[in-house]
Each structure stands twice: as structure tokens, then as C-alpha cells.
Design brief:
- The chain is of the alpha+beta class.
- It is 16% helix and 51% strand.
- The protein is built from 2 helices and 13 strands, in the order αβββββββββββββα.
- It is elongated and about 55 Å long.
């Protein structure tokens, strides 16, 4: 094996830690389930469902993508199934696909759109610049969210978004974020892609729980429709 390839595989192994949250997708980037890393075994990884639910059946040698949650970056690996049960998938022949910022994580649509409030902050003044404005959260990931709002913001503006209700069983969220993308106005609303800033570990865990809850319901609905 070439030295560069050996070093790359060693780098992947060092980056992975048991218990890490992982999105398991097919090669078309469709979410299959939310999982957690059980551990590494030689050159393979073992994945369980995040809530220990039963896993869907999968063919031997089927290709999948694994997107691991890390503090600042998004580690994406592609590999092939080398073993599976109703409780675990074992994946080997791992190849690093790319590393991008957190906002590229799988985004979970929130339905109905979650009402919230956003406040623009003036960095120089260290305080609020405008009064709170109503907005709606259209989708959310571990790294950011897409909101709809009548207010005009620019790329680089920092917002505090409060009262975000994702699921009933979790209290509303508040996040500080930065506007990274601005869409065109439609029906009087502008779409803003926002990236979270400095989310405490406890709040990120709570956010993941909420996302997992929404995704489990979505997967159940797909199964009931035979999709």
C-alpha cells in the first residue's frame, strides 16, 4: 500500500471516536438513519442506530456514506457493507470524500415551520441593533439552520434566534449564528442560511436529540408508505 494511502487511513482512524454521532446515507445522499459509532475493528467501523432501534436490511457490498459530527468540521467517509445484523452495520474499504464546514450536514426539514424570533447584533457595540423580528425555521442541522424572515440581513450579520421549537418533548432553543447565505425574496419572505456559533456541548446534544426524534418520525412515515 502506498505510504500516502497508509497515512490517510491512519488519519481517518485517529479522527474517529466511539460514541460519535453519524449520519448514514446512500450514495445519492439520502438519509438512511441516524447512528452512533460503536467502534473501529481493524480497517472497518461498526455503526448502531442512535437510539438502538432496529436497523433496516442492507445488501453485502452496498456502498454508503458516513458523515460524522465533529466540533468544527464535517468528516465524510464512503465505504462498503462487509457485515450487518438488525443491530449493527459493519463498513470497510473506507475512503475520505471531503471535509467541509458544519453547515453541509444533512438538514432536517421542520414541519410545520417552527415560529421563532431573530435579533440582529452589532458586534462593535456589543449589543442589540434592532428589535426582535418574527421568523420561521425551515430546516435545521447540527451546524446551522435555514430561516424565513421579512427583515433584510446581509452575509456576515450575526443573529440571535430564540424560541425555536423543534419537537414538543424538548424545550425551545436559542442559538447565536452568522448569516452565510441570502436567498431571493418570495411571498414577502427572504431565506437565510445561518451557521451556529459556539454551541455548548449540552445544547448540541439536546439539538441532536430533537433532530433524531423528527427523523425517526419521518423514517416511520416513509416505511408506512413503502418508500
Amino acid at each position: 500500500m502506498p505510504q500516502a494511502e497508509q497515512e490517510k487511513k491512519q488519519e481517518i482512524k485517529i479522527s474517529l471516536r466511539p460514541g460519535m454521532a453519524v449520519e448514514v446515507l446512500n450514495v445519492e445522499n439520502r438519509l438512511l438513519f441516524m447512528g452512533r459509532l460503536e467502534g473501529c475493528q481493524g480497517s472497518s467501523v461498526i455503526i448502531r442506530d442512535a437510539k438502538d432501534d432496529e436497523l433496516p436490511p442492507i445488501l453485502y457490498n452496498a456502498e454508503v456514506r458516513l458523515r460524522f459530527f465533529q466540533n468544527e468540521q464535517n468528516l465524510v467517509l464512503q465505504g462498503k457493507i462487509c457485515g450487518s445484523t438488525s443491530q449493527i452495520w459493519k463498513i470497510d474499504r473506507l475512503v475520505s470524500q471531503f471535509t467541509k464546514e458544519q453547515r453541509t450536514y444533512f438538514r432536517q426539514r421542520v414541519s410545520p415551520h417552527s415560529p421563532a424570533m431573530c435579533i440582529k447584533w452589532a458586534a462593535a457595540a456589543g449589543g442589540q441593533e434592532k428589535k426582535p423580528a418574527p421568523c420561521h425555521v425551515q430546516d435545521v442541522s447540527a451546524g446551522g439552520m435555514l430561516i424565513l424572515c421579512k427583515e433584510e440581513y446581509r452575509v456576515g450579520d450575526r443573529l440571535s434566534i430564540t424560541g425555536i421549537r423543534i419537537v414538543e418533548q424538548e424545550a425551545p432553543f436559542t442559538f447565536n449564528c452568522q448569516v452565510r447565505r441570502v436567498g431571493e425574496m418570495s411571498d414577502g419572505l427572504i431565506r437565510y442560511g445561518c451557521q451556529f456559533e459556539s454551541v455548548p456541548a449540552k445544547e448540541q446534544d439536546r439539538l441532536l436529540r430533537a433532530i433524531f426524534a423528527v427523523q425517526r418520525e419521518e423514517i416511520k412515515r416513509r416505511k408506512s408508505r413503502g418508500l
